[in-house]
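[scheduler] slot 2 assigned
[scheduler] job type: sequence-to-structure, two independent chains
[scheduler] chain ordering preserved from manifest
[runner] begin chain α
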Amino acid sequence: MIIFVFGMPRSGKTTYIKEHFPDFKHIDVFRFQKDLPPGCSQEEREVQMMTEYEACKQALIDAIKTNENVVLEHTLLKAIRRTMYIEAVRDSTDQKIIAYVFNPDIETILRINGKEDSSNARERVEQEKSILEIPVAGDDFTEVHIITEPELPDLSEYTYSESDDRYHNRKDHAKTVILPAKITELKHDFYDWSKVENFHVDAGNKHYSDIDGVLFNATGTILYKYPEGRNLTYYTVPEGVTIIKHNAFADYKGMFARFAETQVCGGRIITLAKSLEIIEDCAFCSSNNRICSILVHEDNPNFTSDGCVLFDKTMETLICCPSAYTLDSYSVPDNVKTIKREGFSGCVNLKHVTLPPGLSYIGSHAFEECVNLLEIDIPGTVKIISPFSFSYCFKLTNVTLNEGTESIEKAAFAMCNFIKNMIIPRSVVSIEKTAISAPPSLTIHCYEDSYAHAFAQEENISFSLIGDTLPGFNTENDTMPGLLRIENESLNEQLMGNPEIAELLEKIAGMAGPLIIGEKEETRNDIFQN
């Protein structure tokens, strides 16, 4: 028997097949899909899709040749996409093809995926439903069954399997994750399983254990995952734990968390054990504003805390400023040399961060999604501005790089859409093409014939050549992008005495709002009228 199960994506097809056709050879196009690198053209995507379809078709043909009962799972919204599979069956066998077409209403699909409140998900489902072409029984399919109310099991419990392709479908539903005794290796770290409140490991498992619903290795020395959906305010890492794994306390509300306005929230307070020796990268990364303070046992020989922010014992390496840090400014201690990867990532409350003069390294993604950060002055002792280090800092207005910095890596300032002034010194000799988002407001302040000067010209970015002294730009503490204070006295005099000030202002600030000159606030119209 040949069964085609197709229709709306994420509508319960896989679950239906497992329930109704458990003994059939299950061929799922998803298993042939591969991720494409960013920036692929539509033509490249079409080529990849057809390669996947061909691989799926060949698997279907091979199964038919062995006289197996086969169920093909696909989306195949458009009739033309089904043709190649129907022809493959016709060329291989005279068996009948029965179709099960999944077409639940929009609300059901959203409920299945836990996306009832997502406007983006709703728009996507509406678009998919608009292009679904439902077949009728005839030449192509002997029978056609329309499934509008799929039978779904209780999704609040998920039993982990090393080969289970339902992993990504269950993350929006599961509240309890069960690890059977036979599990020997975790292929996933349960990052972004935002509703999970407990992990349970079956008795007899020799590799994993749970302590109060938190996932550990069998001996309790490695902490793998704290449940993202648990709402406890305080958690103390048990004594005896020596390693906290990557993403162990990380949680992720979704990419739109990065648009959050300033929040002051209670959050979690995590206390680290005396026995702890290793914290893997991104163990506490979050854009969900959950952890406000990381404390450390006073006798721990490897780590320490200033009451909120986590450091190594020497305080030369800043490991993590928790994303729900409640103040709007932070001064990195003078003896810090390194800010680890994602050290400040997702700290939506921060507007101002002061970096010490001896800082030598800022890790990738270190300030990513600090959506309210207004300005940054990076000392010249930081030779490389790492990839994505300030990406998605939407309100970042002024950036100062100092003599000594040599390279700006890919996407370092990506999606900084309100950036206005960037001072780049002569020492910079490399700027990746994607390093800086270049909104119309951006002016690069650079030296004549410098690398930055050539980069600005090549990328068609507005620039201003620096003379003997650097411009005196400083974003006002309580302003939004578009409000700029000019504090340099000589520049103030020039501006206030210049009747053609508008052109100069556009070049300095790409002005989108009022400008403060000395003590006087003037709008764009005021300046044009002066």
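[runner] end chain α
[runner] begin chain β
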Amino acid sequence: MNPVPAKRGEAATSAEPAGPNAAVTAPMLASTAAALPAGEDWLFEVKWDGYRVLATVRGGTARLSSRNGHDLTARFPRVAEDLVAATPGHSFVVDGEICALDGQGRPSFSALQQGAAAQQVTYAHFDLLELDDELLTGLPLTERRRRLEALLGTRAGSLRFSEAFDDGAALFAAVTAQGLEGVMAKRASSRYVPGRRTRDWVKVKARSRQELLICGWTRGRGRRASRFGSLVLGVHREGVLAYAGNCGTGFDDETVDALAARMTPLERPTPPFGETPVLPRVHRGDVTWVEPSLVCEIEFSEWTHAGRLRAPSFVRLFEPEPTASPQGSEAPARDGRRRRRRQLTLTNLDKVFWPETGITKGDLVDYYEAIAPVLVPHLRKRPFTMRRYPDGIGGKTFFQKDAPDHMPSWLATQPVTVGSGRGSLREERVIEAPLVNDERALLWMVNAGCIDMNPWYSRIDRLDRPDFVLFDLDPSDGVGIAETVEVALLVKQALDALGLRSYPKTSGADGIHVVAPIERRYTYEQTRGLAGLVAAAIARSHPGLATTEWVKSRRRGVLIDANQNGLGKTIASAYSVRPRPGAPVSTPLHWHELDERLDPLAFTMGAVLERVRSQGDLHEGALTDRQRLERALRGGR
């Protein structure tokens, strides 16, 4: 498998003048495929696991823009500096991926999200869209890559030319063996189509396979109502048969019938596991247990911290050798795992946290582990208030601002002064506030019974300077989501008039949060004052629809709560699961999604993970966008 040298394309004369201020602002997108495309007109690259970034260099300065148009320059200054230093005198637009490399040189999205050191960050560039006011998007990919390599070379500081290969099968095998994300296949003759998803670029993800024991099946629904719905799978860990998850995909009708015929004679009244699992969203009476003698091969994306398969799909059934018994040596033990000398023990994963749907603590751990790369940046370096539900949403709950004594030493804390009481009765004390700075700290909080994540609005280096103004929209009893949406749009309209960009998200079941990110130069008094001015103006012009009345008994309409802007206040962060029936998630939205059809309860854990996979972090702007408030504080004048 050899890299394909960048070569001169046949249509090199089809470039167009771009003009002095032109720039491609949206990247070309790839379609998803299960297998690599066949044919000779294809180049293959490693699928880098990081942030998609368009880099624009003009007049000796560089700007790094995310897929959604957010400015990432300040977050990755070394990349910006290296782009300028490598190309003195040139202006250009490059497409690539910013990623963090681990100790083996492999890209790690988790490391990138959790603040990798500058020397680990690499910009893997793979396409050149403009060069010295010449628009290159009409050229073939091969010609664009030739010019890109001539411009930036193959290695320069944090910059790295993403090599292309002609043997896709060999590259895919190597990527799979090394545990990388997958392969990008690009048609060599393709033009660059900004903002469009095409079949000229195809991404194929690598997946693992493992043998597992069939331990039962669940009752089918819909067209499979008369058959089984999913297989209940197990794997041996330390000599004990442990639950590994359910698999409900990968079967055709013939396979379903064949499996049913093999499983029926093996039925047994009790589960074969050492510890009886609670299956997520499955009633106990809908499970049929079998003797664990049938071995199947399952394809999946990864093992979760809870010791379950993520995205499993059935491959085949085969007869095991008499001594063969699938082992979980590659799976994390359910009761603990050691990384970087930091021990995390997960307990009571089968405890039901949502009785009406059967969602367990283990399901919650799985979700937070999967969402951690986009959630942790919204929590990092912020004092964290633990709101614990040790027995799920039906049990007792309590708040804990001070780090508990049993919290592990590797989980960071910060001394913070907090107060209680009012006026002359106010007392202050210093606490050790927990910090959720990485995935492991996040999962420790979930294991401690935290269902939703509640960070401060400000970070530990400047606790008195919030990162955003919050408009917390809370509907009164009898007020529906349609009215709440209407008020959210009025807030947006007011902020637009003040020249402020804003980002909406559902708060959970019925409310909406609107966040206006700001520079860290303003006090909580100023942010609360601005929110109060906007709220009062909307309430005056739309009486009965919006209100600023804080006393519930006198409240009518949707409360715009400006008082939530204050030192020590917390917010249920983006991507937090809420302790409400159905386990809705506080979900970032596009503004165009806010209409009368919005259903916050539709944003379940699974739905949100799929949104993030397809759309990225829609709340990224709340972290990267920075705005001045002088005009707004002057009333828009």
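[runner] end chain β
[qc] chain β: The CA atoms of residues 479 and 557 lie 6 Å apart.
[scheduler] slot 2 released
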